[in-house]
Amino acid sequence: MTTSNATHDPQLRSWVASANQAGCDFPIQNLPFGRFRPAGSAEAFRIGVAIGDQVLDLKATGLIHTDDMNVLMAKAPAERQALRAAISAGLTEGSAEAGEWAKLLLAQSAVEMTVPCRIGDYTDFYTSVHHATTIGKQFRPDNPLLPNYKWVPIGYHGRSSSIGVSGSSFKRPRGQTKAPDAEVPSLGPSKRLDYELELGWFIGQGNAQGDAIDMDRAESHLFGVALFNDWSARDIQGWEYQPLGPFLSKNFASTLSPWMVTMEALAPFRAPFERASGDPQPLPYLDSSANRAQGALSITLEVLLQTAKMREAGEAPVRLSGTNTTRAAYWTPAQLVAHHTVNGCNLQPGDLLGSGTLSGPNADEAGSLMELTGNGKQPVVLPNGERRSFLEDGDTLILRGWCEREGAVRIGLGEVSGTVEAAG
Amino acid sequence: MTTSNATHDPQLRSWVASANQAGCDFPIQNLPFGRFRPAGSAEAFRIGVAIGDQVLDLKATGLIHTDDMNVLMAKAPAERQALRAAISAGLTEGSAEAGEWAKLLLAQSAVEMTVPCRIGDYTDFYTSVHHATTIGKQFRPDNPLLPNYKWVPIGYHGRSSSIGVSGSSFKRPRGQTKAPDAEVPSLGPSKRLDYELELGWFIGQGNAQGDAIDMDRAESHLFGVALFNDWSARDIQGWEYQPLGPFLSKNFASTLSPWMVTMEALAPFRAPFERASGDPQPLPYLDSSANRAQGALSITLEVLLQTAKMREAGEAPVRLSGTNTTRAAYWTPAQLVAHHTVNGCNLQPGDLLGSGTLSGPNADEAGSLMELTGNGKQPVVLPNGERRSFLEDGDTLILRGWCEREGAVRIGLGEVSGTVEAAG
Q1: Nearest-neighbour CA in chain B from A158: distance (Å)
Q2: Which of the residues B131, B221, B339, B340 is marked catalytic?
């Protein structure tokens, strides 16, 4: 990823004071994009950039002339980078724009956000070999990791219509399930409702149908990333998923964080792509020297839970688990793009590629309750004494993510929260 | 489906002479919707109604005020039916509109069609138990029909971006495959490229997230149907599909016929929904008295092939197989809608529900080459001596469909054709 180093300069400070506070998710080195409107209004959503605890109305600055995020996402990388440089310059302490732009800020606490773009197609991958192995053991004890896993970046298509933004709640899904000892299946609310800790990678420029995107160009087709919770009903999944994959166990709701952190902002947090000894080298169409050297991105992730009882008692969410992408993901984002298009499939601006559940190698790095609780057999005990095998009504699940390393300013992905309501 | 019988009256004749010819797909009793523009123009596509060999420019009649098919599809059934009645009245022999509307016709041979609406999400089902059993034998000889099949209308999400309209061609997909005797997989053009004979059901009015659509209302959420070819690369599918289902083996291309035949037009061709003795009764959420009495629709389907050699020799396409939906489909369209939403998943106007490959019980009713040729082992021999195990470059595959019964005027779905190009 070529990008101006100037926008990552750790010395850079903004005239928006909150952006300069230590631990802030949205310093001037970040500049993620989202869609906002004043809270309580019925206005159309517009494109904003997060800075500190504020949102900059981007079109009002004159730097863009559209309210359509997908149009912005479709721009060539050089144009995106020029836009980023201009936003960075304008928000820098002492900039000529400071006076005008200060009038174009809204407090994040005073806006309503929506999903950051129009998602045409949503694909979910399965990039954590630890998740695949642990889940595989539960569905197929004799055959947990299938022979294709280390060759094929396994993926499948998901549902776009039911993707919501952080703060959403949804009804516990009903569905067909069949207990092992039952003669026939029955319909009812899911008893094994789970979350999945994922990242959602957004496509920027697309490709024409029939034209594969090779590894050297793959990452330039990515726009950025958000946190993604792919809620899953394990009992429905177990009964429905053969032979064509998960369907109603997944498509009732997924939840995205509102801010897309761009590939340009992530550039300081690159990491080598490593294969454990014994793992096969990727086929040539999934390999490149750039991918080996710096193909991965280091993003730290954590999962928090706040039950209804905790909320009523004024208790803060508790951390359930956490990991880092470099520990969890067997495939890099560029490999996902190259694989997805090798057959000529056309990606479009705004398409979403889910990482799949990001579980690290240790038990406390699991990205779902199914893994954390051994399929419900060892419930998690919360500080207030409550236990969770799977999610209960009123539970709010929160995912957080950030990037940090020495010599760079920490940037955050913000958070995505979602709440389970009782079945309708 | 309540609808005015007047629009099906077999005595009804149109002032568009070609619509009154025996065997015409688009008599006045049909009136399907599509999107057209003058061939060779760069105009925006507009909404048209097929009548005989002509297209009526619907907005120009003043009956609608939009160019957006999805807006029209979102209308309540009563509004749709009123629109149908008005179109029918205007096109009827002796109508007051005949003079004006005659100026609003374009020959179908002089227009370019596109996919009939904006498809947000595309779901593919697996409704033929014969297809599921035959394919199941090839992927899982010991376990062809899984225990869930007769309880769950099996479905999975597909790719919207790569759905094209009749007349499209596409490059043979490349992909990862692994021969049983190979140590490692390799990348190359698919050697087992196949078609799938399907119907595509379009959603009209959608539902809010969290609100299931029950059986009694399910069919009112369907707008109509088109022919659908879900091209499939069997060798890629075999290696990639476990555990999350088909992905790159399907998403390189699918092809739709241009005209949506409405539920109102299909009304005379209803048929009882029957279960063979020994088959379980559907769970209550998939059952209704209306579904039992008249839940199925009788649509006759056939598959034709024209190879490059045949095309060069001026030889017409040859018929490979054919069946009827009542022989092929284990689930009705209403059951697909009720199942899809039982978990609260929201459907939107323009969403597409594929039927899955419609194969009847007999060998010559198979809806794919994989079935017709016993997974390539018994090639089809064409009249000119060519053989086909799977599709070859230059092959054009054509699906046709129509409804007929005594006492009703035959209506057609037209056709969908698509051509395989060499891998890029």
Answers
A1: 6
A2: B131
